[in-house]
Hints:
This protein has 516 residues and is mainly β. It has helices at residues 10-15, 408-421, 429-438, and strands spanning 49-57, 64-68, 76-77, 85-90, 96-101, 108-113, 120-121, 129-134, 140-145, 152-157, 164-165, 174-179, 185-190, 197-202, 209-210, 218-223, 229-234, 242-247, 254-255, 263-269, 275-282, 285-292, 299-300, 308-316, 334-340, 343-345, 353-354, 368-374, 378-394, 401-405, 440-454, 457-463, 466-467, 470-471, 476-484, 494-502.
Amino acid sequence: MEPMLKMESTEAQIKRPWTAWLLAAVVAVTVVIVQLATPPPSDAAFPGLNGKIAFGTDRDGNFEIYTMNADGSGLTRLTTNPASDGNPAWSADGSKIAFGSTVGGNTDVYAMNADGSGMTRLTTDPGADSAPTWSPDGSRIAFTSFRDGNNEIYVMNADGSGQTNISNQALFSDRVPHWSPDGQKIIFNSDRSGNPEIWIMNTDGTLPMNLTNSAFDEESSSWSPDGQKIAFRTDRGGGNAEIWAMNADGSGQTNLTNNIVDTELNPAWSPDGQKIAFQRVAGGNNEIWVMNTDGSGQTNLTNSPAFDAAPNWQPVALAPGTPPPVFDTTAPVITSLKITRKFSRTSKKTPVEIAAKKKKRKKVKRGATIRYTLSEAAVVQLAIERKKRGYKIKQKGKKKKRCVSTTKKNKRRLTSQIKNKFKKKKLSRKRLRREIRKARCTLYKNRGTLIRSGSAGKNKVSFSGRIGKRRLARASYRLTVNAIDPSGNISKTKRRSFKIVTATKKKKAKKKKSKK
Length: 516
């Protein structure tokens, strides 16, 4: 976990999380060796009236949590300790704030009342814990933890008990969770696809799905209070980070700030769904700004030379008698997934194809047809994964073995682990080979994803065997299909296996001419 530092440049700011600045005021020399755990926090927006905006600032010499009114007035300091405090997150009823702090000598998650009283430590693990977010019913808190040697998403009860890892991805960095307003889903940042992107999963960690599917870096996500939109930070607009918005199923991605000069990050939707607060870096100064949800009316709220960051909006209860919001929590269902025809490669020049039966007087396009049925309209992701052989190897500090690729280095590690297991016994070469065969496992590597809009009922997708410019090689593959509806509900995963093989032409037997 990195300390909480002021960002020297725009690039540094994007890549360092708000929790990364937590230790600067306390440990100015040793911060270089501390490993960072999370990027800028995501923010909650539960339905209600607009209350105060909580944010972190160093205007009193060290990072503390302040609140202000929605127009920037009424500035109030909540935390008053020599440590660094940041990442404020309001509970759904607006009565409590969860945040990260180094007051105990380590970066941990704390909670306090809305006026700053009743500060309570919730996590005590030596690994850095940060970026908390409340569940809508206030009973649980999700947060980022580095206790396993990498960033993972954990969930705990509101009193700090029952801390559970729900992401369980030793190879990747999953961080900065954000609970959906209906309490059914969590969005988070992950580099599972090779670069930081916005992902979504169920609250138990199942059915993870990439929402942004971009080659650029995306972080700092925030749900709208009706659960239909997600605001996030991306650098796809021209090199600098800007605030974009998309539908909960990942479609309709739109630039809101349209600022090619400054850097914007940490969006926070207002509880009434009409405004978005965010952090802007202009001329090296960090300020809290607010805008309408279409990007218009951008206004500076803090107007201070201090470092102001990570805004989070307090929800205020609706007037008595106001009906509660209704959320769609029914996930789409995929049925009858089929792949028609057999994949084959006919020549080196042509792409991977499927030999189609010739129809009389009709030209038939070469390629596969993937057919499926949806219970409702949804965005469908069809991931093509190549099947490979791997080895199950023990990882340092982990109880479970992990399936890794069959590289020479991994084979040496496996051989070493087998020899250590048979220290007191003689291990013949024959026995060693047998043990290596026992350690074999199946590994699937994603070769690309097709994204299609599906309608309720029967659907079909034509697939030529190319994903972008990539042509699939002859091998065994697995098709993994997920669907996500406009409310962000994720279907159960459907899978089908297939092979790409070399097409062989049947040679016609030549009739021997009978000799007269």
